[in-house]
Amino acid sequence: MPKRVQKRVDNPAADGEVVCVSEAFVKREKQKARLLRKTPWWKAKCSIGTCYYCNSSIHPSELTMDHIIPVSRGGMSVKSNIAAACKGCNDRKKHTLPFMWAEYMESIRIKDEGG
Ligand SMILES: [Zn+2]
User: Fold this and answer.
1) What band does 75 get if pLDDT is binned at 50, 70 and 90?
2) How far is the centre of ligand 1, averaged over its atoms, from the C-alpha of 61 (Å)?
3) Left (φ > 0), alpha (ψ -120 to 50) or beta: where does 13 sit?
4) Which residues keep their CB under 5 angstroms from ion ligand 1?
5) Which CATH class is domain 23-114?
6) Ligand 1 geometric centre to CA of 6 (Å)
7) pLDDT confidence of residue 12
8) Sign of the dihedral through C-alpha 100, 104, 110, 111
9) Has this prediction a pTM greater than 0.85?
10) What is the dihedral of CA 51, 55, 58, 61, to 10 degrees?
11) 61 and 69 Cβ atoms separated by less than 8 Å
12) Distance 74 CA to ligand 1 centre (A)
């Protein structure tokens, strides 16, 4: 019988915190994010044209709103938790576990220093 290899993730919030967020919380914070997108604050953030994570120059229209601490992990839609990210980083972050994302951040920082 073939051995089933299954990756088990007991706690996706690998930095130790177990976050339980309700559906209502997610809905509310996403709504708040939508409103923030219309503010001059967000427009100014985008007009800088730099991805918060990889520091690449990105056309303002290509920047996406990203929650530094994802809403699903209890992050709120407040200015201090919102960054302008390129699609690549936003996508990558969405599909990466927090600790893997931290490793990725480390790796691009090291590259920057060596550059
Ligand atoms: Zn980026």
Assistant:
1) very high
2) 14
3) beta
4) 51, 53-54, 86, 89
5) mainly alpha
6) 31
7) 47
8) positive
9) no
10) 10
11) no
12) 23
Structure confidence at residue 66 (pLDDT): 96
From ligand 1's centre to the CA of 63, what distance in Å?
9
Instruction: Enumerate the domain spans of the chain.
Output: 23-114
- What pairs with residue 84 in β-bridges? 65
What is the end-to-end Cα distance of the chain in Å, rounded? 50
Q: Tens of pLDDT along 7-51?
A: 444 444 445 555 678 999 999 999 999 999 999 999 999 999 999
Tell me how far apart the alpha carbons of residues 10 and 14 are, in angstroms, rounded to a whole number: 9
How far, in Å, from the CA of 90 to the mean position of ligand 1?
7
